[in-house]
Amino acid sequence: MITATRQWFRRNRTNFAIGAGLLGAGYLAGQYLLSKLTEARQRMSDDRIARENLRRRFEQNQEDCTFTVLAILPTAFDNVVEALPVEQTLSELQRQKAERLQRSVAPSEIASTDAPSEAPSTNDDDSRSLKSFQSESIVHASQVVDGNNGDGASLAPLRPKKSKAQLWNDMKINSIARAFTLLYTLSLLTLLTRIQLNLLGRRNYLASVVSLASPPTHGSRISLENHDDDNLEQSYGNDFETNRKYLSFSWWLLHRGCKDIMEKVLEAVKEVFGPLNPREEISLERLSELTLEVRKKIEGGTEEERRASKWLSFLLPPPEQEHLVLTESGMEPDQDTSASTDSVTPLRRLLDETSDIIDSPSFSHVLTLTLDATFSVLIDNKIATLSYHLPPVSASTARIVELTDPQSAKTKVANTLAVFCRQAHAIGSGAENEYLAAMENVRDLEAFAAVVYSSNFDFEPPEAGSKGSGAAETRPTTGRTSAEDEAASSLLGGDVSIVEREEGGGGEFEAAWGKALAREDGKDS
């Protein structure tokens, strides 16, 4: 029996060897497939976590942009109001009106019967217009008293003393120009803040990736010495001082740029609205046409002109004024912003990239859309409902107002000025700003922010930065995983792109922006 069994095993040993080999190979293949399945599952989990993390960071960045704009907007508002003192003009008009009334009343017993003898066609119109400013605008009695020093004597009389017609013309031009200037300032400040905070948010994301991907040495965190621009953490955005200096460049728009915009708006408003008489009636359609004419003179009349418009001088200072901005912001100026230095510092790179984005055609396009939204709130909503007493139009529909009597949609120019005056204060408000909320509903603005935040993840390495502008930019070895690469491009719905710095460039930025818009269209559908 034992012999027969032994012989049987000997005869079939080849089959047993083959079977054992197949079982071993099957086991190894199963373990390999299981490990691959586990790896794929882990990769999918990492992808999901990376996408959610980047999405959360991006959304938080946009909320920070909103709060930042609301916090610093009053600074620009104060500068514009100081440059266009509509309240002072109103105070002078009321003072002259009071003097005319005093002269028209004789110091006799017939004063009470002679007082109403003033021509109603002029006096009544002026009285209603001035009352409209007091009741409908933001002007309070305290402001008027301050201008008259409480006893009718002007504290600072206008130079030289102007006639009533000249004062009403100043009131017309300054009220309209002030509201329009604040709309442009708000839109530009919103875009500048989005660019700044999203660039810094992207750099901080890269810094966290570099920190997590860097292997520890001897159980402790790696510590690199900072030799100019060789520090990886500072190169990728953990340099608090560089970030603080970069954000301080919004000072230029708040103090200088807004006044430059004001001069440009004033010139256009004088040319378009100058011939209007404050007493004449104007339809809402005519007011919209005149507003559009002002915008064409400022932004451009055609799509090509708008794309070619340059807004950089309003948003960032010229290189020779950069030290002034740092000084006025309370920081010690240094050589970080000098474009003539041999090494390209992190602050210089941030400013150059910001300039490239501002000069891109996409910036002008998004700016036009945000201005469309804010001007629509001002003209189609506020002016239409408060001055023309038309029913409000839904924000999701086009402005189509059907009137049984077109002549009823008219009002005097002076009545619209009170609304322009009050809305200027609403535009510059740092709380519950309807105009900022309208801009945030523009989907292209979020797409623009997504491009700024997600593009140019292949940031130039410190070695390239130290070789000057002629060095080629290559992807640094940051140890970033494929999940983080895909998450970086998920906001665009495609591959990660960079902003070209070459003269006349911006093609890849345009492609990335187009992908972001396509993704937003997919969400809407």
TrEMBL record:
UniProt keyword annotations, A-Z: Membrane, Transmembrane, Transmembrane helix
UniProt superkingdom: Eukaryota
Name the record gives this protein: Peroxin-3
Keyword match Cell inner membrane: no
Stretches the record annotates as Disordered: 100-131, 461-525
Xref: Pfam families: Peroxin-3
Protein's organism: Phyllosticta citribraziliensis
Compositional bias segments (type: Polar residues): 110-122
Residue ranges crossing the lipid bilayer per the database entry: 16-34
